[in-house]
Request: fold
Amino acid sequence: MKRSTVSLTLLICLALPIALSSSSAQPAPTWKPQGREPFEKYDNPPAPPRKIETSPRMISPHGVFISYQVNVDASGNNIIGDAANECAISVDPTNLSRMAIGWRQFDDVTSNFRQAGYGYTTDAGLTWTFPGVLQPGFFRSDPVTSSDETGTFFYLSLRSSWPVQTFFCDDMWSSTNGGATWDLISGKQGAIGGDKQWFTIDKTGGPGHHFQYQSFDQSNCAGGLFNRSTDAGVTWETPIDIPNEPTFGTLDVDSNGNLYVGGEGNTFYCARSSNAQIGNQTPTFDQVIPVDMGGDLSGGGINPAGLTGQCFLAVDHSGTATNNYIYMLASVLPPGQSTTEVMFVRSTDGGLTFSAPLRINDDTDHQSKWHWFGTFSVAPNGRLDAVWYDTRNAANNRDSQLFYSYSTNAGVTWSANVAVSNSFDPSQGYPNQDKIGDYITIVSDETGGNVAYSATFNFNPNNGQNEEDVYYVRVFPGGQGPSPTPTPTASPTPTPTATVTPTATPTPTPTATPTPTATPTATPRPTPTPRGTPTPRGRPTPRPRP
Reply:
């Protein structure tokens, strides 16, 4: 599809609407994400230096689930007056106690100038070290992290210039010590890319082994919506388009090396490239299938200036009968509804057809409640773990809890939903920007899932509000009753429109009160120093969606 080129000035003027103030009891109006790029813009300089005040870090138990604060200072304490959100977690598959989380770091809530924060743990998430940001003073956003099968971590970061934005480009960083220090491996803006980017790594052992694939939206560095690296993230090819332009989604690779991209264009799509794994060929997308998710992506509402969720795609790598099944999940706005639902579909035939959309949130009065930031992960044994924010227990329909459900039969049925966090008000602690990010993430292993999410458990006495911080919680089957009984797998059908209600019965969970607990963390390591970088590629003026 041909798209006209306009100036960056016009792009920046397409800023997201700030609908209602965070103090309002009513949610902001919802809006469609398509056509609103760019999502990231510079409009505040860095906050001036200030005296740093601290309070005990937050450890927030809720039943058998315990959330641990990640963005703590060198002594393991909460930093009063900052903000952290939009977090992406990586787990070392060779040592599950080693994890790293990247997030958007705001040093002061009086400014929305954001940088690439990161933290790491070596004790399975009980304590975290926050050494700082990737590059102090650099405007960054949209953190995405992942790991390869050897335990090398990667951090894809969107960067832009300030005080005048002249580009939306990405660069790739790597860590070989569990996220303690990071090296810039792609060079400045060397991953090209653009806004709302995501990436995945080929771990199949085939011809595309260690290839990295990236997709992004129309506010980008050099056109297109997709590019790849054939040398593990060091150099990146010229971007190309994806038919029907699926954006705001994620990617994965099946055991045969086929690449799948999920996202929303004029509807949801699952796009496949079977030759992206061939290094001397230009990738082409030979299969682009529309997918009925039971609604559309949205923004606004409970998250006024941000998305209420994006599309997540993942492939089953279990080696069992469900190997290479393709799953998609998103918090969507159904037709005629003003709040979102967590919807799930699957394909058993390589993305050619998909099942009817299945609603995972099992609350009775679901049409009037928010189920937002839905995300999921596939465990090595094929179990599916899904988490999302949920307002079902909130009289004001704003206070949210992190909820969890799992499936042991490839998504045919899901367990009764259970709250795994205490309630928090997502409208507090905004860093001069009315949102708590655009997504949360989970990585699963054989027995559970590792979740990075943002919540407002800590109180900031300086402004009389709670503040946005990053938390880690481990979810697992068993916290909410017996596993669902496996049932025969239904044959996929081409994108039907009926919504199927899960069979599990909701189980209410009592809410415990979070308690701050002072717990020291390991001494942070020095802030990483980036390697020397090659000259960045030139970029034409970014282009808006038509």
Notes: The chain has a mean pLDDT of 86. The longest strand covers residues 449-460. The two ends are 9 Å apart (CA to CA). The helical segments are 8-13.
